[in-house]
Automatic annotation (TrEMBL):
GO MF entries: 3'-5' DNA helicase activity; ATP binding; DNA binding; four-way junction helicase activity; hydrolase activity
Source organism: Caenorhabditis angaria
Keyword ATP-binding among record annotations: yes
Location of this chain's protein in the cell: Nucleus
Protein name: DNA 3'-5' helicase
Length: 550
């Protein structure tokens, strides 16, 4: 700030107070704003709710000329422009919905000697499609009035992200077109996986940008996980009704149908609920969102179509009725809870089988092999997160973004995750077992078996089979396999966790088949991966550990 001079520093605080009504900057905001005002390319990585918008809105007010903000969704643009107008900041939006006359009127205002617009929000397709808009930008640039480009939700540029938007890939033209002098670029996102950040920086031509990262730890969110069983959602809803009567929540579901089923169940339990998914038309979606924002409906049963840019401060719970697509997705979706800083609850209803549904969607999807592999990898990572019973959930989430986190912080916090809570109550509760030998035996046996499910493997491992499976096992000689009964005394769940661990660690792969005569049903049969084969043959050794809650 010293570089900016006392005058500007005072102006910074004065504007923060007079225009936004805040007294203090939040973590990293001031540094990011300083960098932006100095004209550096700036990359801002902050979790949802941290206050990214201020980082470019305040510089926009203090800079000469117009700041162009590219934002992926009309609803986001709508939200931001109405906020800016409320604050008295001259702001306009250019989206495909605007009439030609309205667009022309904005172009004329931008062509004025001293444009009376400080912030102009545009959708990315406007930038790639409109020659007219580009000539307006060129004219501003020539006159030194193009303050900077801001790319909101910059992760949308990366194929590796969960929100890839093809129109975003054209944004590299901004750096290429607006040179001499270069127009600074500011990129903002709440998606912090290093791969996506690098990808976005490269793509936008801002490799050397200053990077401002604030912590991704959300202290006020309690992360919890319970197995998904037929009654679990009803029980959870009853609990939510007691804890947060009449408060806002989101229940994330995988499909439109699931949204509707969950909604019906909620309504039957006396909770006001609506659905939100890509199958609804735009008007209905906007109405649902507005009703929820205005607290006229409490719970939204939604697919991931619901969320980006939703700034409702008092969301008290986010429940995942189905497995999210990645750790990153889970972090973003749960991140919509507790933006006001008050304690909020994030619950995952976990069923391993849900990952098969996700895998099927990915495998049937129309993407390149690379992207498909990445999505499958993401699913395995979230399965690992859910199967885990020993590592703090906060730690797993934020370390996914490269941040270091001491789980002691979670354990001693007011909102410890389910795992830290358990450890706090009984530090001896979680014990570690070396199951490398059993794992190797199982891997050696697998090629000798056909059409084997993980469930069957876990039953053999425990030596606990139903009558039909038992007869089959005897007939096929599976009861003489070396791993048979090695897990005797284990619970059903732990034995399943053992075999799933081999999937998560990449030794076993479940190949999916459509069940004959049942279009929707999927069968998953276990086989060895390349590393599984290497272990089985003895070419490689590996340690496999299993944590068990006692
Ligand atoms: P993000 O885009 O990072 O998700 P927003 O920019 O929407 O977050 O900001 C989240 C909330 O925090 C908004 O209500 C905003 O007004 C508020 N906010 C931002 N900066 C500050 C600040 N310095 N002091 C107080 N509140 C702030």
């Amino acid at each position: 700030l010293a570089v900016l001079g006392v005058d500007l520093r005072n102006k910074l605080y004065a504007t923060l107070k007079s225009m936004f009504g805040f007294n203090q900057f939040r973590h990293r905001q001031k540094m990011a704003i300083t960098s932006i005002l100095k004209g550096h390319d700036t990359f801002v990585l902050m979790p949802t709710g941290a206050g990214k918008s201020l980082c470019y809105q305040l510089p926009a007010i203090l800079s000469d000329g117009v700041t162009i903000v590219v934002s992926p969704l009309k609803s986001l643009i709508e939200d931001q422009t109405s906020k800016m107008r409320e604050l008295g900041i001259p702001c306009e939006q250019l989206t495909s919905e605007l009439s030609t006359d309205d667009q022309e009127s904005i172009y004329t205002r931008l062509g004025a000697l001293k444009p009376d617009i400080k912030l102009l929000y545009v959708t990315p397709e406007k930038i790639s499609a409109s020659g007219r808009l580009n000539s307006v930008f060129f004219d501003l640039h020539k006159r030194g009035l193009l303050a900077r480009f801001v790319i909101d939700e910059a992760h949308c540029v990366s194929q590796w992200g969960h929100d890839f938007r093809p129109d975003y890939t054209k944004l590299h033209t901004l750096r290429e077109r607006y040179t001499n002098p270069k127009v600074p670029i500011v990129a903002l996102t709440a998606t912090a996986t290093p791969k996506i950040v690098t990808d976005a920086r490269n793509h936008l031509g801002m490799k050397d940008s200053k990077l401002f990262i604030s912590s991704f730890v959300r202290d006020n969110l309690k992360y919890d996980l319970i197995p998904k069983a037929s009654k679990s959602l009803i029980n959870v809803v009853e609990k939510m009704k007691q804890l947060y009567p009449g408060k806002s929540g989101i229940i994330y579901c995988l499909s439109r149908k699931e949204c509707e089923t969950v909604q019906m169940m909620l309504i039957k339990s006396g909770v006001s609920a609506e659905v939100y998914h890509a199958g609804l038309n735009d008007t209905t979606r906007v109405t649902v969102q507005r009703r929820w924002l205005a607290n006229r409906v409490d719970v939204i049963c939604a697919t991931i179509a619901f969320g980006m840019g939703i700034d409702k401060p008092d969301v008290r719970f986010v429940i995942h009725y189905s497995l999210p697509k990645s750790i990153e997705g889970y972090y973003q979706e749960t991140g919509r809870a507790g933006r006001d800083g008050l304690p909020s609850y994030c619950l995952m209803l976990y069923s391993y089988h849900d990952h098969i549904r996700l895998r099927r969607m990915i495998e049937e999807g129309n993407t390149t092999t690379g992207v498909r592999m990445m999505h499958l990898q993401n699913v395995l990572q979230i399965v690992a997160y859910c199967e885990n019973v020993s590592v703090c959930r906060r730690k797993m989430l934020v370390e996914h973004f490269g941040e270091v986190y001491d789980e002691q912080t979670c354990r001693t916090s007011k909102t410890p995750c389910d795992i830290c809570d358990r450890k706090r109550k009984n530090p001896e509760a979680i014990r570690l077992f070396d199951v490398s030998d059993e794992a190797k035996m199982l891997m050696q046996s697998l090629p000798r078996m056909q059409k084997t499910t993980l469930k069957y493997l876990s039953e053999l491992y425990r030596g606990n089979l139903c009558k039909k499976s038992s007869e089959q096992a005897m007939r096929l000689g599976h009861t003489s396999l070396p791993f048979f009964k090695r897990g005797q005394g284990m619970t059903e769940q732990d034995a399943l966790r053992f075999v799933r661990k081999l999937v998560v660690e990449g030794y076993v792969y479940e190949r999916l088949y459509s069940a004959p005569n049942q279009a929707a049903a999927v069968l998953a049969y276990a086989e060895l991966t390349e590393s599984g084969r290497a272990i089985a043959s003895g070419a490689k050794t590996a340690k496999v550990y299993l944590h068990i809650v006692t």
